[in-house]
TrEMBL record, chain A:
One of its GO terms (molecular function) is ATP binding. One of its GO terms (cellular component) is chaperonin-containing T-complex. NCBIfam families: chap_CCT_beta, thermosome_alpha, thermosome_beta. The gene is LOC107422720. Its main location: cytoplasm. The keyword Glycoprotein does not apply. This is T-complex protein 1 subunit beta. Keywords: ATP-binding, Chaperone, Cytoplasm, Nucleotide-binding. PROSITE patterns: TCP1_1 (PS00750), TCP1_2 (PS00751), TCP1_3 (PS00995). It comes from Ziziphus jujuba. Molecular chaperone; assists the folding of proteins upon ATP hydrolysis. Known to play a role, in vitro, in the folding of actin and tubulin. Belongs to the TCP-1 chaperonin family. It is found in: Cytoplasm. It holds the Pfam family Cpn60_TCP1.
From TrEMBL, chain B:
It comes from Ziziphus jujuba (Chinese jujube). Gene3D superfamilies: GroEL (3.50.7.10), GroEL-like equatorial domain (1.10.560.10), TCP-1-like chaperonin intermediate domain (3.30.260.10). GO terms for cellular component: chaperonin-containing T-complex. It is found in: Cytoplasm, Cytoskeleton, Microtubule organizing center, Centrosome. PROSITE patterns: TCP1_1, TCP1_2, TCP1_3. Component of the chaperonin-containing T-complex (TRiC), a hexadecamer composed of two identical back-to-back stacked rings enclosing a protein folding chamber. Each ring is made up of eight different subunits: TCP1/CCT1, CCT2, CCT3, CCT4, CCT5, CCT6A/CCT6, CCT7, CCT8. Interacts with PACRG. Interacts with DNAAF4. Interacts with DLEC1. Interacts with SPMAP2. Heterooligomeric complex of about 850 to 900 kDa that forms two stacked rings, 12 to 16 nm in diameter. The gene is LOC107428512. This is T-complex protein 1 subunit epsilon. Its main location: cytoplasm.
Length: 527, 535
């Protein structure tokens, strides 16, 4: 008797080898897709959205590329997921993590083909990952105590991160920008207080870091354009019609004159509110919500600069920067903390007028203004800068640093190789495979730069058999170079996250021996 | 479809729209049902044991789940066949009752069905088979009782509990740090356990996950974590010796349930209403302040104005906290949930030693930790992991481990794992079979054979020779009269599960056998399947 169908109509099931092949192929396809973006000479991708307008994004950032893909293969989704997590957690290394996981699976596929059980491969991979991590831990440099050296470490990391992005031409400039911005945070990882404003026009070199705060808003008409020693009230309150909020209240009148009276009362209420706000002794009022014409006029009369509709982030940052509190009631002017700054003025960047707050009390926040030829360039610049900022802020907390340029991979590969030789049993094949997968990363970097990867990797391997070697790939000169001298560094935290998440993902995919796909949910047919 | 005719040759219509239905009867129906049940069992078979593989499930919306947990696999499998649905239910009821062994129960039921099919071919009546199975399952359960061992544990000696949880966790993807997770699970269960009543309320253990970090960062927190942040960005991020007011009323003007209207028809009314509203906000905040609260946790939102007033009076607040979390906070801090501002009193406040906000990674995710609570009976297990799927799978694994620990506290009898209990039962059932005179004898013997399938699957998944290994272990058990020999899945070098510290709970195992037998009995009793044919 034939086996009854047990699934729903469109559900499908793939078993054993087929399932494994499907997931390997899917995962490797994803890895190959982003592979060419790796390294300083990596290429970019153009992404076109399917939405209206067919917006185009040009990017080099692994997480951004993968996020925008529509993927059907479940194993591929696992890789997309790890890249997203890498982005959230450390901000950089989003491409490396996918490529490493892909390489691990490629090696695993060969092992499975030579009849080694996936579980054996997994246990080998685990041992190898642990060993690789320890190898890195032994080699880390921690300059956290020495602020001079630490700053130069940060510069190096920023330069290394930026060199694979669109900003690589001006990496010196942007590395300095990023380091300055992060140093101002004083150890907090809250990147919210670094504001990035993008204005097309000029060249990337014209981008600058502003110590103060720039709000992308216009000053109301008839109000002062420049205020010195500003006292700022940051508020989140309705400045249109202040509704009575008691539930069920409604206006019911029987004649026109009554309507006018109530309207008058409403106006009076607004006026009172404005009076109260003015009574705080301020000369600048920033509101999150809209300010209607009537109150705006009142503010203008009192010579107060009123800024409306600053979005929530803007308000929070402004409150943080100026040291004021976000107020919503105005009955006790004496106890509300006002924000202060030395100077508020309207400035022009390109063709837009912006409001610039300078000489603020708290030095934590700052604004980076990016200039560039087009929106695409600016978007990509922002992503690159974001990566750099993330890495730097993580490094400030965990000041352990490694050399870059394929050096960590070589160190790990060497240790793992050694472990493979010492381990008896079938596991040693898996461990060896792990070391090969690690070597794939410098190989790809070299390949992407158009160098002779086989030759370079062989040279590197030889170099690394000496104790205390600092050799890595110098992509610019196309040869093996001393990474310490070239000043190419990477954050330990990023490398560790890449190693661990890639192993975890590979393990997860290896463990699967059956894929069951449910019938896709039916969408209602649109008429 | 067979039709019945009366003496005039007119067909009887028995079923509504008879022509549109397909119908299977007799042996065909049995076989169809059995093959469906077996198909489900076959899917799960490879997931059994420490070397079992995972399944990747893609939901109708395209979300991917990777899991090893039988109940989860079956739940998400989009099954259409009725008998297969029975198997899904079987696994689910094992999950509800015991929490672990959800894969084993289905595999066991599958092998019972397989044996039943053979007997049916011999021409034995299904009911007799079912009865034989029933008798055999009784023998097996009694035998388990005999070979079970009690072990003592106390707050000072957690080792046996941890070992048992480790057995459960070793088949999951998290087995890399099973020791840590097992310890966490045991400590969590003990923290909320009522050792005198021998009961554990698992609701008091909250399992919260956040993507990022690594599995080793998973921690047990004696307190509550809420995935929320302070309502106003400038409120303090750290409060010591917090007195917590737990409110279920919004910081908004009251909304009477009865329909009502307030008519404004004059300027005076407008003014008074406005004043009232202002006073209302003021009163609310003042009430909280008056009773001495230093943190307000509210189930609802606040108005902007209330929010600022709270901030202004230096009273940090958290809004939109879910009902379940609110209850947990209330239990943990010893506070009362207060539905109205008027009813706030100092006694109703909860107390916590430390409340702090913690941020993660580069995104602005923040979570609120409430620690050092007055009553530490509520705990949280906070899972970190490389990606969403790992976290989900860890949650499921931790749930299994928690259930196992709870079962042990309820009943501290254990049997040994690695298939040893099944082999021992199989031997006992086999020996007992000869004492039954009727046709049931065959069914009982078949039951014994079916029990062997679990160790066989274990051996197969571990890459051993299934038949060879099983016969070796079985003969060893009989020869040395020691029921602790099982399959050496991890290649440790000994078959003695006592030495390997592989335990399972007695009630879990008993339940598996009973549930599987019940479902098989039910399936065997079906002799007619009527279903609407496809059109």
């Amino acid at each position: 008797m034939a086996v009854e169908k047990i699934f729903k109509d469109e559900a499908s099931e793939e078993k054993g080898e087929r399932a494994r092949m499907a997931s390997f192929v899917g995962a490797m396809a994803i890895a190959d897709l982003v592979k060419t973006t790796l390294g300083p000479k990596g290429m970019d991708k153009i992404l076109q959205s399917t939405g209206r307008g067919r917006a185009v994004t040009v990017t080099n950032d692994g997480a951004t590329i993968l996020k925008s893909l529509h993927i059907d293969n479940p194993a591929a989704k696992v890789l997309v997921d790890i890249s997203k997590v890498q982005d959230d957690e450390v901000g950089d290394g989003t491409t490396s993590v996918v490529v490493l996981a892909g390489e691990l699976l490629r090696e695993a596929e060969k092992l499975v083909a030579s009849k080694i059980h996936p579980m054996t491969i997994i246990s080998g991979f685990r041992m190898a990952a642990e060993c690789a991590r320890n190898a890195l831990l032994q080699k880390v440099v921690d300059n956290g105590a020495d602020s001079e050296k630490f700053k130069s470490d940060l510069m190096k990391i920023a330069r290394t991160t930026l060199s694979s992005k669109i900003l690589s031409q001006d990496k010196e400039h942007f590395a300095k920008l990023a380091v300055d911005a992060v140093m101002r945070l004083k150890g907090s990882t809250n990147l919210e207080s670094i504001q990035i404003i993008k204005k097309p026009g000029g060249s990337l070199k014209d981008s600058f870091l502003d110590e103060g705060f720039i709000l992308d808003k216009k000053i109301g008409i008839g109000q002062p354009k420049r205020i010195e020693n500003a006292k700022i009230l940051v508020a989140n309150t309705a400045m249109d019609t202040d509704k009575v909020k008691i539930y069920g209240a409604r206006v019911r009148v029987d004649s026109m004159s009554r309507v006018a009276e109530i309207e008058g009362a409403e106006k009076e209420k607004m006026r009172e509110k404005v009076q109260k706000i003015i009574a705080h002794g301020i000369n600048c009022f920033v509101n999150r919500q809209l300010i209607y014409n009537f109150p705006e006029e009142l503010f203008a009369d009192a010579g107060i600069l009123a800024i409306e509709h600053a979005d929530f982030d803007g308000i929070e940052r402004l409150a943080l920067v100026t040291g004021g509190e976000i107020a919503s009631t105005f009955d006790n002017p004496e106890s509300v903390k006002l924000g202060h700054c030395k100077l508020i003025e309207e400035i022009m960047i390109g063709e837009d007028k912006l409001i610039h707050f300078s000489g603020v009390e708290m030095g934590q926040a700052c604004t980076i203004v990016l200039r560039g030829a087009s929106h695409h360039v600016l978007d990509e610049a922002e992503r690159s800068l974001h990566d750099a900022l993330c890495v730097l802020s993580q490094t400030v907390n965990d000041s352990r640093v490694l050399l870059g340029g394929g050096w960590p991979e070589m160190v790990m590969a060497k240790e793992v190789d050694e472990l493979a030789r010492k381990t008896p049993g079938k596991k040693s094949h898996a461990i060896e495979a792990f070391s090969r997968a690690l070597l794939a990363i410098p190989t790809i970097i070299a390949d992407n730069a158009g160098l002779d990867s086989a030759e370079l990797i062989a040279q590197l391997r030889a170099e690394h058999h000496k104790e205390g070697c600092t050799a890595g790939i110098d992509v610019l000169s196309g040869s093996v170079g001393d990474m310490a001298e070239l000043g190419i560094s990477e954050a330990f935290k990023v490398k560790q996250a890449v190693l661990l998440s890639a192993t975890e993902a590979a393990e997860m995919i290896l463990r699967v021996d059956e894929i069951i796909t449910c019938a896709p949910r039916r969408r209602e047919d649109r008429m | 479809m067979a039709l019945a005719f009366d003496e005039f040759g007119r067909p009887f219509i028995i079923l509504k729209e008879q022509e549109q239905k397909t119908r299977l009867r007799g042996l065909d129906a049995h076989k169809a049902n059995i093959s469906a049940g077996k198909a489900v069992a076959r899917i799960l078979k490879t997931s059994l044991g420490p070397k079992g593989m995972d399944k990747m499930l893609s939901s109708p919306d395209g979300d991917v789940t990777i899991t090893n947990d039988g109940a989860t696999i079956l739940e998400q499998m989009d099954v259409d066949n009725q008998i297969a649905k029975l198997m899904v239910d079987l696994s689910r009821s094992q999950d509800y009752e015991i929490g672990d062994g959800t894969t084993g129960v289905v595999v066991m039921a599958g092998s019972f069905l397989e044996q039943a099919e053979r007997l049916l071919e011999h021409g034995i009546h299904p009911i007799r088979i079912a009865e034989g199975f029933e008798m055999a399952s009784r023998i097996a359960v009694e035998h388990l009782e005999r070979i079970a061992q009690k072990f003592e544990f106390g707050p000072a000696n957690l080792e046996p509990l941890i070992q048992t949880c480790m057995t459960t966790l070793s088949s999951k993807i998290v087995n890399r740090c099973k020791r840590d997770l097992a310890e966490i699970a045991v400590k969590a269960v003990l923290a909320v356990a009522d050792l005198e009543r021998k009961d554990v309320n698992l609701d008091l253990i909250k399992v919260e996950g956040k993507v990022g970090g690594k599995l080793e960062d998973t921690e047990l927190i004696y307190g509550i974590i809420v995935d929320k942040d302070m309502s106003h960005p400038q409120m303090p991020k750290r409060i010591e010796d917090a007195k917590i007011a737990i409110l279920t009323c919004p910081f908004e003007p009251p909304k009477p349930k009865t329909k009502h209207k307030v008519d404004i028809d004059s300027v005076e009314k407008f003014q008074t209403l406005r004043l009232q509203e202002q006073k209302y906000f003021d009163d609310m905040v003042q009430k909280c302040k008056d009773v001495g609260a230093s943190l307000v946790i509210c189930q609802w939102g606040f108005d902007d104005e209330a929010n600022h007033l709270l901030m202004h009076r230096n009273l940090p607040a958290v809004r939109w906290v879910g009902g379940v979390e609110l209850e947990l906070i209330a239990i943990a801090t010893g506070g009362r949930i207060v539905p109205r501002f008027q009813e706030l009193t100092p006694e109703k406040l909860g107390k916590a030693g430390l409340v702090r906000e913690k941020s993660f990674g580069t995104t602005k995710d923040r979570m609120l930790y409430i620690e050092h609570c007055a009553n530490s009976r509520a705990v949280t297990i906070f899972i970190r992991g490389g990606n969403k799927m790992i976290i989900e799978e860890t949650k499921r694994s931790i749930h299994d481990a928690l259930c196992v620990a709870r079962n042990l506290i309820r009943n501290n009898s254990i049997v040994y794992g690695g298939g040893s209990a099944e082999i021992s039962c199989s031997v006992a059932v086999e020996a007992a079979a000869d004492r039954y005179p009727g046709v049931e004898q065959y069914a009982i013997r078949a039951f014994a054979d079916a029990l062997d399938s679990i160790p066989m699957a274990l051996a197969e998944n571990s890459g051993l020779q299934p038949i060879e290994t099983l016969s070796a272990v079985k003969s060893q058990q009989i020869k040395e009269n020691n029921p602790f020999y099982g399959i050496d899945c991890n290649d440790v070098g000994t078959n003695d599960m006592c030495e390997q510290n592989v335990f399972e709970t007695l009630i879990g195992k008993q339940q598996q056998i009973l549930l599987a037998t019940q479902v098989v009995k039910m399936i065997l009793k079906i002799d007619d399947v009527i279903s609407p044919s496809e059109y």
